[in-house]
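Hey team,

Filing this mostly as a record. A colleague (T.K.) asked me to run one chain through the structure pipeline before their review meeting, and I want the input and output archived in the tracker in case anyone asks later how it was produced. No errors, nothing strange. Just documentation.

Input sequence:
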Amino acid sequence: MKKYSWGELPEPVREGVRERAGDIASSEEIEVGQSSNFAAVLHRDGAAPLFVKGVEGVSPPMRWLRNEAELGDLASGIAPAVHFSADIEDWLIVGFEYVAGRHARLQPGSADLARVAETVNRIGEIQAPDLRPLEQRWQSAWWAKLGQERPEVIGSWDLDELMAWEQKAPAHIPGDCLLHTDLHADQFLFPVTGDIRVIDWGWPARGAAWIDPAFMVLRLIDAGHRAVEAETWARRNTRWRVATEDEITAFAVYVAGLWSYKAATTARLARIARDYVGWRLRLPL
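Output structure:
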C-alpha cells in the first residue's frame, strides 16, 4: 500500500481536511501498519491535534476505516471520538481525537490487567443490534482447507474432530453485544490522564459478550501467561465466565483454524516469492 506524507496528498484532499480541521501547523506521520495510505497527527493552530487516517480507492481497507468512523458514537468514551469523516475524490479521510499514551502491558503481574478487564467489560455492556452478527463472518471451513492444502499443519490431530467443533462455532456466538474482535495490547491506549481508549475498530460485530474476553485469553497466553492462568483471569474479571465449556472449545478451534490457515497461506506465498527471487537471481535452491 502506497504511503503518503501530508505534503504528498492531493491538494483537494488537503484542502478538504483544512476545511474540517482548520489550519495545519505541522504534520507528524505515524506508522500504523498496512491498512492506511495516510496516517498522521496533525497539529493545528489554536486547537488540539487530531489523528487523521486516509485510504485511497475503494477497497477492504476503505471499508475498515469507514467502520471505524461509523462506530464512534456507539463506542463513545471508549473509541477515540470522530471529529470528521469525508469522502474527497477517491479518498476517505477520517479525523479522530488524538490520544497521547502508551499501549497496554499484558505480561503476568502487570498492573494494567485490571484496567484492561474493566475496559473489555465496558465494551461488552454496549448493545449493538444493528451491527453485522459475527456468526455471518464465521462460516468458513478452515480445518477442511488445511486438510486439503497443508495437512502437515494438522499433524497427528483428528481432523474430523476439529471440523466437528468448527462447525458448532457459529451457533455458539450469537448475541447483541458490541465486539471489537481484534483486541490485543496495542489496541489499548493508556493516556496520562483519563480513561483507556481502544483503537482500530475496523472489524466490529455483534455477538456474545464473552467473545472479546476469549480473544484476550489468547493474547494473555502470547504475553507469557499459562493457559490456565489466562482463563482464570478471564473467569474472575470478565463475562468469559458465562460461556460454557463447549462454547469456549468451539471458539478456540475455529480461531485456531482461521489463524493457522492464514499463517500457512502467508508462509506458502513467502516461499513462492523467495523461490521466484532465487530464479531471477540464479541463486541455488
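Quick notes for T.K.: The radius of gyration is 21 Å. The longest helix spans residues 245-280.
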